[in-house]
Amino acid sequence: MPSNPNAVLSPAEARHLLRRTGFGAPADQLQTLLSRYRTRGAAADWLLNFTPVKFKPRGKTIDALHDRWIKYMITAPHPLQEKLVLFWHDHFATGNDKVDNPPLMANQNQLLRRSCLGNFKDLVKAVNRDAAMMEYLDTVRNRMRQPNENYARELQELFTLGVADLNGTTTYDQDDIVQIARAFTGWDYDAKGRPEFNAERHDTMDAFPERGAKVIYRAHGGFGSGGRDFTQPGGEGPAEIDQVVDIIFEHRDSDGQNTVARHIARKLFAYFAYADPSREVLDAIVAEAAFDTTWSISTLVRAIVVHDAFYDTAAAAPAAGSTPKSVTWPVDHVVSTLRLLKMKLKGSDQRINYSSRTPIRSYLASMGQVLFQPPSVFGWDWEHGWVSSATLLARYDFATDIIAARGSGSTAFRPERLVDLDLTDAGTIVDAVTDVLGVTDQFSSSERAALLDYLTDGNPTAALDLHNDGVRNTKLNGLFGLVLQSPAYQVH
Questions:
Q1: Are residues 212 and 159 in the same domain?
Q2: Long-range contacts for 72-75 (Cβ within 8 Å, ≥24 apart)?
Q3: What predicted TM-score, i.e. pTM, was given to this entire model?
Q4: How many Å apart are CA 107 and CA 111, to the nearest integer?
Q5: How far apart are the first and last CA of the chain?
Q6: Exposed/middle/buried for 237, CB within 10 Å: 0-12, 13-18, 19+?
Q7: Total count of domains within the chain
Q8: Is residue 79 part of a domain?
């Protein structure tokens, strides 16, 4: 299955690309792709051609940060940037429930935004020194006499290597955790969240000769039985945490491939496409991007979205045994809906302009995702983790309240801005609504027939008058609601 940057995008593939790399498939962006950037490679280059905006959510409370980030995403000029910030927020999961410091969380959010397309190794080194992360994973409590192993463990398990490689072979052991924890002793941050190194709190061989040299990967990573001593060159001190990362990025798995490159490519592919790509696909993407040497995130993303495998789920409901689609993240679901319907939220607490006055974060909490509050260092549970009777009901309630937000302003649902009211044919109206929501290709013939039945009350030849308030407020608004609640709209 090859990388194919010169393949011409079909409308279904273009919609798929926009949905996965942004928030929905707006008609204007779809038209731009199909008329000006017709190939996979040209489309990818267009989507990736931005300088990261340095937006930082601000506020005294974590709810304020949450709401400002949601507000920004609804109008963000580069949706792919926000999709990448969401990914890195999950990957380097940090929760304010423990950090308890909104300014530090805002700083980390800006770091992820600034670095979202850059060099992954540099990003890991920056996260090493991020104050919110140091608080969350206890670097600030890692002292030479009482080492704390939390960050050393998650640096390997979650951020770079994974617990095991593709063959199930363990990538590190407890001694590697212990030695790396020694490197991170002495680190803290000042009142403004800037990293500080205190040499008096740092574990050195002079202070603890019985602990010996700081050597890692004697039994893993392809370094040989001698492992790698990260106190040389440069000696002991603040440079050790960068030296540790450099060694981790040389780690080889049981196939002799770069472990970090495979692990990150696999996770990014799962985010943009589907879980568990084949080894062949994974290695082709890493090779296409030269990710194991350049560590360029933008090049890796491009390699993913020009590969044939990325488009496996672009078609409508897949046949039995084919690659399953992915469930949209709650934040993606909410932001995509608001962007596609050209709606904004109301007030400082970002609520739907409806009588319930419920803040958007409450809807998201019911759907299973609150920004800045991942459930653990493992981040959110994707795919089936987003789906339960309670979370689906929350999505349906969101759709119901969205189309009930009547009025004339930008916070109102106004279908007359989205669909030509001169349309009378039910089939054309169905196509117009599914086009607005970017899912025209995702409905089976039987599902489309059900929408037609709803519009015509079972009379397929009936004409509709959308200029009639009653027809518009029941049938057209109801049709939008049905599509928003449909299985096709919940998945990519």
A1: yes
A2: 73/23, 73/331, 73/335, 74/335, 74/338, 74/339, 74/344, 74/345, 75/344
A3: 0.96
A4: 6
A5: 21
A6: middle
A7: 3
A8: no
Closest CA to 330 of 374, 273, 376: 374
Question: What digits encode the pLDDT tens for the residues 469-481?
Answer: 999 999 999 999 9
Q: Is residue 203, in this structure, part of any structural domain at all?
A: yes
Q: Which residues of 352-381 are buried (b: 16+ CB within 10 A; e: fewer)?
A: bbbeeebbbbebbebbbbbbbbbeebebbe
Residue 369: C-alpha distances to residues 69, 86, 89, 354, 380 (Å):
14, 11, 12, 22, 8
Check: CB of residue 473 under 8 Å from CB of residue 54: no
pLDDT digits (tens, 9 = 90+) for 108-145: 999 999 999 999 999 999 999 999 999 999 999 999 98
The DSSP bridge pattern shows strands 228-229 and 215-216 to be: antiparallel
Residue type for 303, please? A
C-alpha torsion 284→286→287→293, nearest 10: -170
Within a domain: 251: no
Model pLDDT for residues 57-80, shown as the tens digit of each residue: 999 999 999 999 999 999 999 999
Instruction: Give, in order, the Cα–Cα distances in Å from 141 to each of 131, 145, 178.
Output: 12, 11, 15
